[in-house]
Structures are given as C-alpha cells and as structure tokens.
Amino acid sequence: MAKLTKKQKEALSKVEKGRIYNLEEGSALVKEVNTAKFDASVDIAVRLGVDPRKANQMVRGVVSLPHGTGKDVKVLALVTPDKEAEAKEAGADYVGLDEYLQKIKEGWTDVDVIVTMPAVMGKLGPLGRVLGPRGLMPNPKSGTVTMEIGKAVTEVKAGKIDFKVDKYGIIHAGIGKVSFDAIKIKENAQELIQTLIKMKPTAAKGTYVKSIYLSSTMSPGIAIDTKSAN
C-alpha cells in the first residue's frame, strides 16, 4: 500500500470515520480535503438498487448541470457541409466529416464529445470499436445524434453530461471542480441526483438510492445522506 503523505493524512483526518454528512456539509468538505496541486475534479458516485443486467432496470440519461462541469469540453461535430456554419457558431472545436472519420479510423480520439446527424450515423458504425470503449459513440438518447446541431453543441459546452449505470449498479459523474463554491457543487450534485430519482425503473424494488459519495481527484470519499439530496 502506498504511504500517505502528511497532507493526505491531514485530509483523511477531516473526514470523520462512520459519519454520514448532509449534502451541504459534504460539498464544503470536499473542497477542504483536496490534496491535489491542480484544480481537481469533483466526482459523485451514486449506488442504485437496480440490476443493470436486466434491460428494464438500466439507468441511462443526460443532465444539464446548472453550473457546468468546469471543464473545457472539446466537441467534434461530424456534419454535412450545410451544417458546418451552425456547428462552428455554437462553439464546436472541430467541424467536418470525411477527414475526421479518416483520422478516427487512424486512431485519433482527442475529443470529449462527438455530435452528429442521423444521416451520418451509418458512416460511424464501422468506427464503433474505436469510439465505443472511449464512450465517444454519439447516441440519440444523449442528444448527440440530432438535426439541431447548434443546440446540441451549445448544451454540451454549457455542462450537459450523460451518465450510465455500471455493472455494479453505480453511476459515476464529474460534477465540477474544487475551485467551485460549495453551493455550486451542492446544486450540481442535487440536479444529478434528482434526475436519477425521476428515472427510477418501475422494475426496481426496495431502496433505490442506496448510497452517495463525493470525492475529488486523490481525496478520500465523503459519505452523503441520501435524504439530504432530495
């Protein structure tokens, strides 16, 4: 096990063992226990009472965080020439089609989100092996396959994120930076949690939101009272 630094020990001591914090306390504490020398991401892990192996218990969707993620999201718009101006105006970092399809084929994936049109999806199919594992394949459910290219780019840039429950029933998401005010972290977390609650599958039985943890890059996890996020 790696030896903890003095700073890491100090951070760990601030998180009371066995204590469950309300969301307001946790959002302030996650800023205090950060030990990274850079503006670390604030992450949330929500464990749900679902069985993701069953199609009727899969939880997947999108949420627009009120204060964004704090991250400069690099967007590639794969569009036909008539949509290029719209994508550029909305702030897409890369705009085009065949030349970028070729670059992806050659292994280039230096983007965070790809936005495209229904007519282009057929060309993206063969690139699934490159894009799929990196979570870059556009999807109509996440709003990244649409004719409203400008709107899609603007929303992604403003803090729209997509999420999907993993095989252990946990949703992981980045909801800000430690430089954010505690209230902004709290409101972003609340927005995600409330979105998840609205999406509860009818087939899910028992406790739906089982646990919530907040953490930042390299910080200890902070247990959050699930009721405080409602």
From TrEMBL:
Keyword Chloroplast among record annotations:
no
Q: Which UniProt keywords apply?
A: Repressor, Ribonucleoprotein, Ribosomal protein, RNA-binding, rRNA-binding, Translation regulation, tRNA-binding
Q: Does the keyword Ribonucleoprotein apply?
A: yes
List cellular component terms (GO). large ribosomal subunit
Q: Which family does it belong to?
A: Belongs to the universal ribosomal protein uL1 family.
Function, in words? Binds directly to 23S rRNA. The L1 stalk is quite mobile in the ribosome, and is involved in E site tRNA release.
Q: What is this protein called?
A: Large ribosomal subunit protein uL1
Q: Which organism is it from?
A: Chryseobacterium fistulae
Lineage of source species: Bacteria, Pseudomonadati, Bacteroidota, Flavobacteriia, Flavobacteriales
